[in-house]
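Researcher: Here's my situation. A collaborator sent me these components and asked whether they could plausibly form a single complex. I don't have experimental data yet, so a predicted model of the whole assembly would be a useful starting point for our discussion.
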Amino acid sequence: MKIKFTNRPPCPLGKVLLRFFMKSIIFLFCSISFALTPLSGEAQDAEIIVDADITLTVRQTFRLINKQTDYKFIYRHDLIKTAPNVELKKGVIKAGELLDRCLSPISFTYNFTDKGTIVVKKKPVESDVRGPNIVMDQNIQFQVSGTVIDKEGTPLPGASIVEKGTTNGTQTDFDGNYTLSLEGENAVLVVTYMGYATKEVSLNGQSNLNITLQESAAGLDEVVVVGYGSMKKRDILGSIATVKSDVLEDSSGASNFTSLLQGQAAGVSVQTSTGRLGSGVSVKIRGLSSISAGTSPLWIIDGVPIIAGAGSGAQDTSEQSPFSLINQADIESIEVLKDAAATSIYGSRGSNGVIIVTTKTGQKGKTSINLDYSTGMSDLPFQRVEFVNTEEWFEIRDKAKNSYGLGDYSMTDFYVGSVYLTEQLTLEQAKSIDTNWFEEAMQKGSFQSVNLSASGATEKANYFVSSNYRMDKGVMLNDDLERYGLRTNIDLSPSEHFQLGAKLNFSLSNSNRGKNHGTSDSGNQSARSGGFAFLNQSAQTFNPVYSLINPNEYFNPYIGNPVALSDRDNMVQDVEMYRTLASVYGEYSLPFLPELSVRSELSLDFVQVNRNTWVSDKIRWDGSWANDYASTIRTYNYNLFLKYDKTFGEHNVTAVGGVEAQRNKSWTRGMQAEDLVGEYKQLGSPSQMTWMYSGLGGEGYLLAYFGRANYKYKDKYLAGISVRRDGSSVFTPDYRWGTFMAFSAGWIMSDENFMKGFGANNFLKLRGSFGQTGNAGIPSGLDAFSYTSGNAYGSADILATNGTLVSNIGVSDLTWETTNNFDVGLDYGFFNNRINGSLAYYNKYVKDLLLATQLPQSSGISTIYGNIGDLVNSGIEFNVSSINIGKQDFKWQTDFNVSFNHNEVKKLVPRIDKEGAGMVSYANITKTGYAVGEYYLADFAGIDPETGISMLYALDKDYYDETNETRRLKDENGEDVKIINSNANANANKFHIKGKNSIPTYYGGLSNNFSYKGFDLNLLITFSGGNYIFDSFYRDLATDYSGTRRMLKDVYDNYWTAPGDDAQFQRVNWNSNLRLEDGTTVGFGDPRTNTDQFLFKGDYVKFKSLTIGYTVPKSSNVGKLFNGLRLYTTVENLHTITKYPGWDPEGSATSWDLPQLFSSTFGVSIKF
Amino acid sequence: MKRVLFYILILLTISSCENEEFFELERPVQRPWLNLTEFERAPIGAYRSIFSTYISWGNVFNYWYLYKNAVGDDVAWATPGDAAWGWYRDTENEKAWLSEMFVACYKTISSVNDAIQYVEENNGNPYPDITEEDKVNNLDRIIGELYFLRGFSYYMIATTFGDAYEPGGANSGQQIPLRTVRASSYEEASNSKIGTTEEIWNQMLTDFQTAYELLPERYIPGVMHVSYEAGRANKFAAAAMLARIYVGMGNYTKAEEYGSFVIDENGGDYDLSEDPIEAFNKSTLARAKETIMYTPCYDETYGNQNLHAATFSHLLIDNPVPWVATHMDYTTVQRLGWMPDPKNDTTITIVARRDKRYQQLMAFRGASNVPESDRIEGIYYETRTNLTWRTILASKYFRGPGGRYTNVPTLRLAEMYLTRAICRFRGGDKEGAASDLNVVRKRAWDEIIAGESYELSDSYVTSANVTEQMINDERLIEMFMEGDRIDYLRGLKVDIPNNEPERGVPASVPYTDKGFVWPIPIQETELNEGYSN
């Protein structure tokens, strides 16, 4: 549970309500009470039945009373240890008498509160008693009383008031009142309260002192969820970023909550590859920690390690992420664990970081019912990629064809060779049409979302129940996503020592996901044409939507008509996804050893994905086609652990230790067929089955032992150790087990005397850790020879479709990829914690990389896994939160975070390192001494101003043969040698583009929150950069002067036309053939060469979201109707500053899909 | 504290069994060939890899003959300046598609090595319970096919990335990885022997010889696995490949021996009684009478055929693309007498028109500068380049009713006749050579167009007038665009003509010229330790 008031939008009623809950909780859970109200007569007279003669300890006596009266006891365990046992005779005894017999011998007394609680405390010395709430020692000379309030005047119950330098103290009552006897009139009071900055007040002789506490910006008393438990933020030794739940509270156009993490936490890079509904989001913590093994963090929701990917097997579309089934409104907090101190306890799953999501629980107090409704629209962003119109397109084609002396372009050129036409346009017809396909095949997206939740608590139970419904209509025709969710979180405390609870989440979604493929190959034979990529690549403006001959039919559906391809009468790709996230836990604190408790959690994540893809013969030349796929994925997790928390004087020890087991597996089945029978949009009983599979897979079993101990001395010297031993089924028995340890230490410097000049209520903590985590993110079964099957030669009718080929050589000695994490950080809070944050440096050295090493091709297999190579990520993270203005009516808070990451390969396969050539894969090279996957492209030398030909720098091949280093060839004058950008030259003259790869090196976010009376405003700016994008999709468009692709306006405006032009793009040519002015011809081959002409900076700054909210005052007529009423509007993806010329620097550079969409939302949140 | 430790101890004791059972997979990786029927999967996969895997625009075998065609002297590429021209003929630089071919061939080799080793590890019979009939007809056959497939893979690689074999020469240059056993570790996989020309060619001989000995002559329904019916190697296919290898090694006697075996001892399975088109128009399980082996592409789900045939074949049937970048070389056309004076007088002569191979397996392409108004429907006019002359193209692919789902012949009887003809000629048996040549010529003779019978025409060959050029040109026509020309000439150990005076290249080059050898893929030379030994 995280309790925090800062950064929430003003919501007076909600705030009051929440504070009421909090007060109750804190009051009830306080462990010391000094109040002295006499036990009420009624309670004192309650009769307790004793069944038989018995001797009871004090605790047993309390339980007896509790059982028969429901009164709950509050007392300090350690103070009543010396109490003698009580001998009772069978019969009836009054509660007061029984308590007197228990407590009098040890000079304790008790009082009854009107909340049904009996507070047990030391009996005060009978002296000059002036009031009820007095604790006095023999030498007490002075007494002070007053009220502790927050700055809005609300009393704070349960606040601790201690005389500085002593153990003398008290606690405020339910109304915030306190009275304390002191040794002198110049004593200093230290007042602490959870969520508020600690305050020291000099008495200066005052006997009545009201104390106002400020909310703690640093939230040092916040409880932060860590692995297998929680800790106060002040005591945290690891690098943990907390994402505030308020970023998730308002609904928005985001259809996967993980995208909302962008810019919210230092060290966390969040990249959304497409704006499709519910699409996956790439989250990387502190850089790329592996090359071949998994790089995604471990996600834990309410203790459940969850399924992060659940593919529906759909090709050429963006898959729906199972994260899209998590209702963001259910989330209370998100913690990102980054260093070994925090993640080592997760052992083999921790090297990519851990993200812990905690859902809401009921708060004690009045039942709260929340109803949130929001609706909104979405559209392409304002910044768009521009294309030429019909006239301009034909103008370029004419020029291109004429450039080779072949006359003007004709429609024959466009239609040549296509047998999939149903209709041909004349040139005249074509030139008269200018279809805007972005309008024809797209629409305004919209969504509606309803959340209804109820929460509350009684003495023995708390609950949170929510249901949600959300319907999104995408911007592409025939793209939608509908979701239902139900959550029940219940925690029960049936007895003083036992707690149990369950968190159950059921959700399902239906979506229709269109295809995304840029062309229509062979009359859409593979049934994958359509979508945004098609609009950008093939949707020619001169094609009409409907046939000119028969307007009831689509124009040329087989060669790709985006509207026909999006018509649900022609194409269906329905994905159903069901998810059950369920966990139950029990926790028992031992009665005779209260510092020790045992907890066990059992959880299940279950995802079922069903997909039905169906294509009619109206858009597929080869006839109707369908593919049916289903996948059932299960993860079970079980743990049992002990928790220990004990304070010895100035020493405090907390520890956790236990066992955990996790079992994952999945069952998939699929079939595909052609020539369907019947009219249903399904596979049915087809004439021709073309593919079928069913089987068990994804098996992964994990068994672990873990422990963590933290030690604290004087509340300012901190040390921790964690250890985990993991066994995983992906390794063979001899290599199965790995042990991961981490050590950490911290020093709260601000508590030292020498820091006194630093000022009151400021905070400075130095912390550091070193430890190991592991990565076992590889498939099972790599220890055995494996074969691909289903290699068909011939035909099904002669059973020749299931041939085998060797695909893998078994490797039996694979073991963990180990990351040595070093982290040092400084957490700070200045100016009474109004400015706070942290600064951290980390170094993650990954040893024994699980590297899928390339093999010589003659081995017959492409790669082999081995623990080969090392990699390092190092970086700096900084975040600051500042309350710039904190007036009652006007607040302004700024949060900023930035992270810098450096990635470097330290070691690869010995032969590769010896040769120095690196591992080349398509347009990337991974080489020791450089970052993973730097670009390996031909070196574009610009457009020759005289000839208009695209040029490359020649590679110094002799030097390369000698050193395996790439550099430009020089001529006898020392000038760079330039050669034409032909396909052959581009392939033979590739350069290692050092320092440039696709991984961002810096990223972060800036958020500003303003509130004025009932209004609030939040502006979020995110940024990322240092990466480069090799955009082959843009290249294909930009180099096609004579083919059938659409043409970019950029190219139309900037191609070479005459000698002397300093052009951006090559002169027009005909099928990559060019006739020069002197009559000679030049051929370039396939123009889609991999050159750095199309390598773009990936840096961007996004104006990500702007929210304006208004909380209706409780005093208004409308406000009186509810316990809270808030209206808000949010706009997202307002503007992106970037040099990248495509739609979205976060998007795919090989097949453009929807960018992050502009969206606007209106919402209302009502509390009853 | 003691009690705390005690409870921790209990907890750990309860659960601290590093129990292996916990990690046992329900579906561990399984051996793929649990019985003889399943062992059939081994050759099927290997055939798939080299004859039917769809890579980019074609399959491995198709890419092999695409590039072999590209360097042939019988082919011209659209117009000078067309980028494709230089691209395919460029043997200095690594070609992506050839690299993919290299990969697929070695994938076959490694899978075959694994399967053969599996047999050897089980003392020659992994399935001891099978009947003797099964052993001969199925197990031995499968093993024979495996050897055939390894030999064929080496054949494609050696003829693409290796030097020509020099009879009597040292043939000692290190060429390509020679792998005959399964690699079972990183070290073995990344370090192989690099075979010399001699070793590689001998390996092919050994493989095809073993296949020849183990393979049956034909498919026997009900006895052999049904998959063996289509597109698989038999004894005659192995003999045909032995004939090819021996020609490549300059041993014409042995080549003649195996060619004769195919021609004379096939029990009537193969002859040249059908029209030439019949080998190229099958979109069913059916086989032409002359087809010894073919890739079955007829299954619309599983049949993968070479779309890149578009580069060198007339593609008016199914999937036409404007990339017919090749045509018959002008000098060749003139030498054959098919056009009086290509580029000036492009009339198609009677010599061409009466030849069924021209009629059925070739087409002409109209010049690009023919005005739209003068164009004749049904004739394909060049659009991609400014080719201003009528040209003759191959039109051998996609000729069945299934379009691209048309079987592709791998080995045809006509080639064996022509192989035997040249071997006989070189061995001094001119009569035999003339006889074989006449069989091929007669099959292609259209008596109606010619207006006379073949035997009475001046095309009829006798021992008196037969020449090597005649046999070679006949083979050029017969095998046009099937990837044969260069290796045939390299096999004859003659200088290879070059008909590109406009490019300033020499009129001919020795058959050992490196211009016919593509570089080994860089990834192989960089990653294979064998290349640094």
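Model: Some features of this prediction you could bring to your collaborator: The first strand of chain A starts at residue 47 and ends at 50. Confidence is low (pLDDT under 50) at residues 1-40, 125-140 of chain A.
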